[in-house]
Amino acid sequence: MSYGPPAGAAPEAGGMTHPRTGGRPGPGPTAASRPTAETGPRTDTGGPALPDARSTVPPPTHATTPPPNPTRTTPTPDPTRTTPTHPVPEHAPANPVPGPDPGPVPGLAPDSARTPVGPAPLPSASSPSSALTPAPAPDPDPAAPEHAPLTRRFLARATLVTASLSVAAALLGLVRDQSLARLFGAGRDTDAFLVAWTVPEFAATLLIEDGLAFALVPAFSLALSRRAQGAPGDPVRSLVAGTLPRLALAFTAVGALLALAAPQCVAALAPGLPDPALAVDCTRITATCVLSFGLAGYCSAALRAHRRFLAPAAIYLPYNIGIITAMYALGGAWGVRSAAFGVAAGGCLMVAVQLPSLLGRLRRRRTGRADARAAAAAQPLDVPLLATVLLFALGRQSQVLIERFLASGLPAGAISHLNYAQKVAQIPMTLSTMLCTVTFPAVARALADGDTERARDRVERDLALAGCLVLLGTAAIVACAPQLIELLFQRGAFTARDTAATAGVMRVYALGLLGQTLTGVLVRSYFSAGRASWYPVAAMAAGVVATSWIGAWTVGSRGTTGIAAANAAGITLTAALLLAGMRRRSVPIRTGPVLRELSRPLGAAVAAALAGGLAAGLPSDPLAGLAAGGTTVAVVFVLLGRALGAQGFAPALRSVRTLSRRLAHAVLR
């Protein structure tokens, strides 16, 4: 099963209108003998034909006449008619007819920069094309954002909105973790809850952030591209009708099965847990998030493909609010089970935030009576593609299972130390991939339109910018880890001993942040074409094997720091394998220049971390140490980055500066 006819497939018989003109395909046996309704340039309603930028037919001009076609008779133009000029619609497709993309024409401007050339002669009433072409199918709204050409200003604004809301959600997530540490400490109860927390962690990765999005964003991008080409019916509604009911049923079944098998899951995840009964109760409560997270991920993918980023970026705000509210309101009576109930409530809030926006986008397209039968044909989801993306996401998230399995045999609090360290250390990685969340639909749309060069340039810019941002954050975390943990968590039941253990683990975790970021950027490229690819699954499997082997080897002597080192080594191996396979199996980026570009901010980050660590250790007050260390890291990284000439350095600084101004304005106004 697939989303629709693949590129190069012949149009179906039986009344299918042509995707560009609305007419039926010509009767001729070859493309050369078909009438202009299929092989000629696009015609608007009542207007003249305009040359297509990718058409193989030379565009006519005012000074020259197109050469006659030897296979047909050229109609005599009407000298009494005046040929008006119409602009090319913004949503005109890149490929004129179904078939393999002919590739970019030398000297041709990009899609967003094309301008119409001179008008073509208007065919007379005796023309074969006019005889075969009925009233054209209604075009999509040219003002719709999903059909408008992408601009740097749009990408900047979308990234700013996404990053701002993500920063707010991350800060609220820290408040959530602080509340958990303050109310329940880092002991038996929190260890039991964090085993159950595996369910929402897996569900978020599989259904919202990575897995399902890798399958649905290309699918919706392809449907939007077919809609822009004038396909009969509404491909977007057909996709929703063919996928949403089946996926909702699958989510419900998996959640119910997980609740029933909670004792077996807890025994497999943490066999040495002191209180498995509490973990079983929490797991059964959090199992409801499989359905809610699945629906939230579906809405997020559809809205991002429509270039709507506000609601998807805001979903973790009500999610964290629900958890925090439940812990403080029900913690006295329910204990740590209140946090599990907050997870279930927060999942429902994530769906509620996005549903109005998605329904509004689906209602915009009105289907005529002639297209009702075509719109009713549901498009099934590509099962091989869904299988590969879910297996990849499952393998990536399985590193958490390995960590908790190995840590369950360590003293009480080990799982909590790993959890708190990972949550703080991943903040730079989360922020650095915000741009990729915005540009992933753009890459998928470029590949759907056959523009590989545009997709390659976008991926290379994303790698440079994301690398700079995450390396700056890595240097700050390595330099200021003790001060950060003390300021964030050391209060209530969280002691100074917990601070020292968590800070040591976090510094080791930070060594794998670059690999985490590169993996997140590169894997989107593998799945952005909407085709199943098993190479990322194999690369992730190699990383999981490395994590398991190194963790089992080091946990006895190094404890939690050995587990964190295994995580960093495994994900770095996966990133290296994904980068090595890009040219032949994905978007053909230039691997050598990308590696040379990443080496520049990497050197700056190493020097900045060393200098920042020395500066942070001078003051005795944690806040003063954090300020001194953070400032030193920023100054050293900026100076060395400029000196080394990193290409992603300037946009990274602009992104950080703009985001800081917006956050300061929001806080101080």
UniProtKB/TrEMBL annotation:
Keywords: Cell membrane, Cell shape, Membrane, Peptidoglycan synthesis, Transmembrane, Transmembrane helix
Places the protein is found: Cell membrane
Pfam families referenced in this protein's UniProt entry, alphabetically: MurJ (PF03023)
Organism expressing this protein natively: Streptomyces bangladeshensis
Biased composition (Low complexity): 1-22, 71-85, 123-134
UniProt name for this protein: Lipid II flippase MurJ
Main localization, broad class: membrane
Sequence segments annotated as region (Disordered): 1-147
Composition bias type Pro residues, residue spans: 57-70, 95-107
Membrane-spanning intervals of the chain: 154-174, 247-273, 285-303, 315-334, 340-359, 463-485, 505-527, 534-555, 561-580, 601-618, 624-644
Membrane topology note: Multi-pass membrane protein
